[in-house]
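The freezer alarm interrupted the setup, so I double-checked each line after restarting. Inputs confirmed:
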Amino acid sequence: MGYKREIDRLPIPPKDAKVHNVTCHYCIVGCGYKAYTWPRGKQGTMKNNAYGIDLSEQQPAMGTWLAPSQYNVVKQNGKDVHLALVPDADCVVNNGLTSIRGGRMGENRPSDVMRTQQQRLTDPMIWRNGVWQPTSWDDALDLVARVTARIITEYGEDELLVSMFDHGGSAGGYENTWGTGKLYFQSMNIKNARIHNRPAYNSEVHATRDMGVGELNNSYSDYEVTDTIFIIGANPLETQTNLFLNHMRKGLENGARFIMVDPRRTVTVNAAEEIAGKENVLHLAIKPATDIALMNALFTYIVDKGWTDNEFIKNSTFQGGEAVPLDEAHPAGLGSLEYALNACRTSTAKAAEICGVPEADIIKAAEWIAKPKSDGSRRKCATAYEKGIIWGNDNYRANGAIVNIALATGNIGREGGGCCRLGGHQEGYYRPADHVGRPATYVDQLLISGGGKIHHIWATDHFKTTLNAAEYKEVHRRRANIVKDAMDASASGTREQQVEAIVAAVNAGGLFVVDMDIIHSQIGQDAHVILPACESNEMNLTSMNGERRLRLSERYMDPYGQSRPDCLIAAGIAQNLERVLREMGQDKYADQFKGYDWKTEEDAFMDGYHQGNPDVTYDRLRAMGNNGVQEPVVGYKGGKLVGTKRLYSDGKFDRHGRKDKKALFCAAAYRGLQAPGKAQERATHKFWINNVRANVFWQNQFLDQTNDFIQDRFPYPFIEMNPQDMADLGIKAGDLIEIHNENGATQGMAYPTDTARRGQVAMVFGSPSGSQGNVVNPGVNELILPNYKHTWGDIRKLADATPRSAHVSFKSKEYKA
Amino acid sequence: MRCKNMVNVGRRQFLRGGAMAAAGAAAATVTSAPAEAGAPVPPAQLEYPSARLANIADLKVNEPLDIEYPDADSPGVLLKLGTAVEGGAGPDGDIVAFSTICPHKGFGMSYNSEDRTLNCPGHFSRFDVEAGGQEVWGHATQNVPQFTLRIDDKGDIYAEGSSDLIFGRPSNVL
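Predicted 3D structure, all chains:
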């Protein structure tokens, strides 16, 4: 039986409740909310309340309502206050809608009264006497600085491995990317860094940037006025929920057609059919990893039919053959349309054969994208892609092949157009230029091969999310344990003796691990020092969403326990490094760590983002409310920040940095399964293991893992499977099953569905109780972009459904009236 | 399918619940233990009206009956599933009742008798009436409110509580 909250009434915010602007800190869409806070022992009434409505009446659909999940009791300036987090009907992003993720922000706050999120870290901790012991910031930062200073001075900065977020929203934002970026890329010159979701420090969309086209170039409103929404390898109803429900939906209701390229039928396809009618939805269920062949056929067909935007191509794209040759840093050459087409040319018949979809459907897609309307006018097409491409086969060329079509049809920089990634987290990147080079170091492999002596980890949990995770975990744990043993053996010694013991241990193959996080993560189990960070709204935080909408999400509660904003933790590390280096007589080196005298996150914002964007301040952003301003900010007039609705409306493309401001096409020839080992894996295993997301979970469930409502729905990671395949293997709904191959094994719960084709399963990513990455091989592209999406393995039953999985609903996820 | 049969239980028939005084939220607990006749008895703080919904003899397997509970502004559905379910009431342990206001954004849901789910046309959420109203897929941050049922000696079915807060109100009993 489903989880019951057993809550049948909630407090009412009084008229004088404080109100703060909140941007949801989870997905890239960044829905607006209002946070009402007021003292305990006080309430509004049915007629007189902060919402200004008569609550004694049943509210209509879309009316204001506080769900139990949006309520909590939190600390504000040291006092317990009620918190009501209500979606903002006036925010143009969501117009009062909530997702199943953002709608639980309230109950996912730490509360000593409501006992929610008691897993949050409260104090710095050091590995002492075989356990993690709480300590002071001064003590913990001193140990971090002493070990780090010893290693970087004696062995160089390349021995410091850094894993750090690069995003906005939860665990990111301009304040925190700047704090960490200044530490590692300005005070130090760190080369061996990696990002939260990939094993190197690189872009997930190198190709579109190299072509001159920034990956977030339109406005969400463009989906409302377009003729065709063209999506490749994305599932927006699940993962950018209110972009689909509040914007794409309006487009479909206005008559837009919908093309989805995905081997799997998703709830997005079903919802599009419900809204637009099946006749206006085309699902191209291609064979896994064949996207590039399909894109190239569409590109070829559109050019051959003369459906290109020749004026745009002439004025805004490079003419004259090759502009950038294929080389170590460019997995495909770049140049003019003719140059690219020469490499990409693919017939619709050939693509039909490679992709396993009818040729007529490929032609239909080309027509929906580009065939002029009967009155001769141009069709508008908004194109979007995400992890199916970014985490898919041959990232660079797949990305480039998509942008080719948008450029050829003149659909960038114009109303109703755009060619964008849909995104995961919000964005919030402001860092000094990095020094990692291109291709970047494959940091996971460096660590596995024994490289690095220290590992600083910022709000990332590779144990749940990296590829080749089984081997990574085994090595990381073994190396961290060498240091733990050394610390235990020197437990009664002085700090100096302990540092000596740690240095000896890392020189014997150990790894000294410092983990900055909000919870005690799985990789944090290897940590020797744990530094507690706070979240958005326990600090002020700025980020931008998928249409570059910059907002200030305000602090309405205190950081939990002794936790701090990441930017101030970075400042603390820098200040301690300066002190210790000076003690070591390294004055010149110590001077590099000056400039962190920040008291608040706003100081970090002013030191970083504001320097590059002098019009933008906290006060001005606060005044812009939940609608914020779309970046880039180009001025401040009449008391308002002036933004940019969509990029490249002047037809000039600059993301590649070329002076001619001409966009480039990509010679994205299809070369089958690109990453090493993948083709062999496909040949030797029965099932394609698709790596998928579900709307109920935010990221790797770091907060959701203690959320009763969520864990009741999916107590174990689901593995969607064809019922006939299940029958063949003697597997029933809810049974615990194992996916295994030569990379490792992982475990989940069988979920029968007709949307799974024979021989294809879809496992949810990043689960605490079943890392999909265990079975993903280490294969990457030339620029170290992993292919998480293409894994093959075999499946066996481990156990019958447990009582927890036996009560779960295994019905279809598709809405059926 | 839309519910065809309407049981006339208007607001006037209800005993009004206790006054809604200043109150904090009840702490969330995991599924309550099944009580007699298998019906859940939530530790609700409110005093709920007891409303007669129907008689067992009125129910046919998998034919939904429209109800209103706790008052006329709060539509719901009464169902005899034909097979016992956890939390089901009645001699066969198969009678359940749910709100049909979607706990996401308050749109009216319809019952799909084919796979026994409540479906919301607003944003495509769906709930399993055979699994205690569990959200199969959707945007609501709770499962659909299930009404507590009591069945007397004559077979009359009464609703006397709700497992979760109903959309659009700060208190289930207004």
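Quick read of the result. The CA atoms of residues 199 and 444 of chain A lie 6 Å apart.
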